[in-house]
Design goal:
Layout lengths: L3 E6 L2 H9 L8 E3 L10 E2 L1 H4 L9 H7 L4 E3 L3 H16 L5 E5 L2 E5 L10 H16 L3 E6 L2 H8 L7 E3 L5 H5 L12 H9 L5 H4 L4 H8 L1 H10 L15 E13 L4 H18 L2 E11 L4 E7 L7 H13 L3 H4 L2 E13 L12
Bound molecules: magnesium ion (MG).
The site of magnesium ion (MG) has 5 residues, from β1.
Length: 353
């Protein structure tokens, strides 16, 4: 039986800004580029009282809370604080899987300080984070990643919630289905059409029935409803990439790659949105008729969050292909996005491409 902690900083970017500028305390503070087209990166708890949330458009936020104070994101600062937090984790375990700058899974089944329980470890970590950074973190403690992630949200801000193995079933049965990570609006609407509202309602379905309604995700739902999640904490996550490619029926000259590339970028965008994956790195892949593979990548300081950005990035990578290669004919073009951030971090306006 594993002991997993999910640590999640409270309103991270906004809290860092309040720490930097204490005169903002008690005021509705929003971290976002102050432009009608951008989206909120983080809202302080004071701002949340007005209904402001991360990923909400700044245009809407201005209506809900005209007096909010806007601060442009300072990612180098957040990254520096994030690495302080990771050094705290590293004093307790080396099984650390960061999910974003302010969130990580830790496997503390064995911990360096020989603390008797995962709860003790979580509390020690929260205290040490506060000590080192002046910021509060919330933690969820559970036998697996799925439950730990839900639990960290249960007593936010500055709270801890523990789901011991003996309490897993009692915790899960009444849980509303929208609390399951990965259940978005579309899946939730489908649940409701099937008259399913809580995990308890899921338990009435066989694995085959859930797979009939939800495809491969149905199998995962079947297991999650029973509190089963065998995914280990993976310290050195291989960089994931979501990509798509197309092989031409006939090899084409370089000058004709634009059009299929734009279509690929649009298709890839659809995949990314469905998977709720927003990444900072775009990679272009080309294969010549001699099977030589060429890749070009570009990394942005914030995740791509509009389809135009992806198309623009793809086209600009095409321009970076050497002239010597351009004289070939090409049999394949592909495009991929990697370096993902959590959904909560998305919504920042992309600076100049
Ligand atoms: Mg957070």
């Amino acid at each position: 039986m594993r002991k997993i902690i999910h640590v999640d900083m409270d309103a991270f970017y906004a809290s860092v800004e309040l720490r930097e500028n204490p005169s903002l305390k008690g005021k509705p503070v929003v971290v976002a580029w102050d432009s009608g087209r951008s989206v909120i990166c983080a809202a302080s708890y004071e701002a949340r009282k007005y209904g402001l949330r991360s990923a909400m458009s700044v245009a809407k936020a201005r209506i809900l809370c005209p007096q909010a104070i806007y601060i442009a994101p300072q990612f180098p600062l957040y990254r520096a604080v994030s690495s302080q937090i990771r050094s705290v984790f590293a004093r307790y375990t080396d099984l650390i899987e960061p999910l974003s700058l302010d969130e990580a899974y830790l496997d503390v089944t064995a911990n360096f300080k020989n603390l008797p329980s995962a709860t003790a470890v979580a509390n020690a970590i929260r205290a040490e984070i506060l000590d080192v950074t002046g910021l509060t973190a919330s933690a969820g403690v559970a036998p697996n990643k799925f439950l730990a992630k839900i639990a960290s949200d249960w007593r936010k801000p500055n709270g801890i919630f523990v789901i011991p193995p003996s309490r897993v079933q009692a915790f899960l049965l009444p849980l509303p289905l929208q609390k399951i990570p990965g259940v978005g609006k579309v899946t939730l609407a489908k649940f409701h059409r099937l008259n399913m509202f809580t995990v308890n309602d899921l338990l009435g379905y066989s694995e085959a029935e859930l797979m009939y309604h939800f495809g491969r995700y149905g199998r995962r739902l079947y297991n999650l409803a029973r509190g089963v999640d065998e995914r280990p904490v993976e310290p050195n996550q291989v960089a994931q990439q979501v990509s798509t490619e197309t092989t031409f029926e006939q090899d084409i000259p370089f000058g004709e790659i634009n059009q299929p590339l734009i279509l690929l970028c649009e298709r890839l965008w659809g995949q990314l949105v469905r998977k709720k994956k927003f990444g900072c790195t775009v990679t272009l892949k080309l294969k010549t008729n001699a099977f030589r593979i060429i890749t070009r990548s570009k990394t942005f300081s914030v995740p791509l969050h509009m389809p135009e950005h992806l198309v623009q990035a793809g086209l600009s990578l095409l321009e970076r292909v050497d002239d010597e290669i351009k004289s070939n004919k090409f049999r394949l073009v592909g495009v991929g996005v990697s370096q993902f951030v959590e959904e909560e971090e998305v919504g920042m306006q992309l600076p100049l491409l």
